């Protein structure tokens, strides 16, 4: 049996991000040599990329990058299988490198991002596959957002102190207001609105909500004459919950988000909320 210590296993995990059992097996194969085990894990990692395709990647991190003048910003989610890998420096370095690449190249969509070159002769897809091999887990890049406007800001939220941010919110205002931008982003992180305003809700969604409200009201035995008013009230309740501008503002729930923006003389152009795995 190879001669190595628990400290060697710990060092190998830190160097590679691989699981404990994989590290022990690699050290056994390398006769206790940490350097040899690193090489063995890299080789196995390259062979295991395809095998990991069917596995679930629901952990990970959200990273952001805002320009110094706050006129542009990037939000990007990189997923992995375990929180151990997610909180590792190597995984987070990959995520930050991808965000920097998006900021520098402004890809049109995910397909364009994955096909673009992040290093000489290496596409983003190949870069992610390499991380997959090196870290020994399925690594997935399938979501990013980039805003360019008058004033762009971000809020990053950690659900656990020892993990990287799991929720990120990007907001774009028509004029600079750092405090309001922060408050709005925190509100969005907490209340997860799906749409900015009523006008942004697809017509088919509204029709579905109206139909459900009507059928529910009838099933409750409400008087026929009262149906329109009750249904309209329930649809308005849906709008209040699902649209940002209609929600009570988190920092002053006596006012709607729209009211707070109006009083500040600011327009919220758009927002994006990314939560790992959702």
In a few lines, what is going on in this structure?
This protein has 278 residues and is an alpha+beta fold. Helices cover 47% and strands 22% of the residues.
**Morphology call:** elongated
* Rg for CA atoms: 24 Å
Mean pLDDT: 89
Count of beta strands? 10
* Biggest sheet features: 3 strands, antiparallel
Spans of 5+ residues with little confidence (pLDDT < 50)? 46-52
Counted by DSSP, the helix tally is 11
Instruction: Give the helix/strand class.
Output: alpha+beta
Order of helices and strands: HHHEEHHHEEHEEEHHHEEHE
End-to-end separation in angstroms reads 44 Å
Give the percentage of residues in beta strands: 15-25%
Largest beta sheet: strand ordering: 1-2-5
Name the helicity range. 40-55%
Structural notes for this entry:
By secondary structure, the chain is an alpha+beta fold. The protein has 11 helices and 10 strands. Helix 9 (203-219) packs across helix 10 (227-242). It is elongated, with a radius of gyration of 24 Å.
């Amino acid at each position: 049996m190879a001669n190595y210590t628990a400290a060697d296993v710990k060092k190998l995990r830190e160097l590679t991000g691989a699981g404990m059992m994989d590290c022990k097996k690699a050290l056994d194969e390398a006769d206790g040599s940490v350097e040899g085990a690193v090489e063995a894990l890299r080789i196995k990692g390259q062979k295991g990329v395809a095998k990991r395709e069917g596995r679930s990647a629901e952990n990970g991190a959200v990273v952001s990058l805002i320009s110094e003048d706050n006129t542009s910003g990037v939000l990007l989610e990189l997923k992995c299988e375990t929180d151990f890998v997610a909180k590792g420096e190597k995984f987070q370095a990959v995520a930050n490198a991808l965000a920097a690449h998006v900021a520098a190249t402004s890809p049109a969509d995910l397909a364009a991002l994955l096909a673009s070159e992040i290093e000489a002769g290496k596409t983003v897809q190949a870069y992610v596959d390499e991380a997959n091999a090196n870290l020994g887990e399925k690594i997935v890049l399938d979501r990013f957002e980039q805003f360019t406007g008058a004033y762009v800001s971000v809020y990053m939220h950690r659900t656990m102190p020892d993990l990287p941010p799991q929720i990120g919110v990007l907001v774009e205002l028509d004029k600079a207001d750092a405090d309001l931008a922060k408050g709005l982003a925190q509100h969005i992180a907490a209340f997860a609105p799906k749409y900015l305003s009523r006008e942004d809700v697809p017509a088919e969604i509204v029709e579905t909500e109206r139909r459900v409200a009507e059928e529910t009201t009838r099933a409750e035995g409400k008087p026929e004459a009262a149906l329109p008013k009750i249904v309209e009230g329930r649809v308005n309740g849906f709008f209040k919950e699902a649209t940002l501008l209609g929600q009570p503002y988190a920092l002053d729930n006596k006012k709607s988000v729209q009211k707070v923006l109006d009083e500040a003389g600011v327009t919220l152009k758009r927002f994006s909320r990314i939560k790992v795995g959702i």
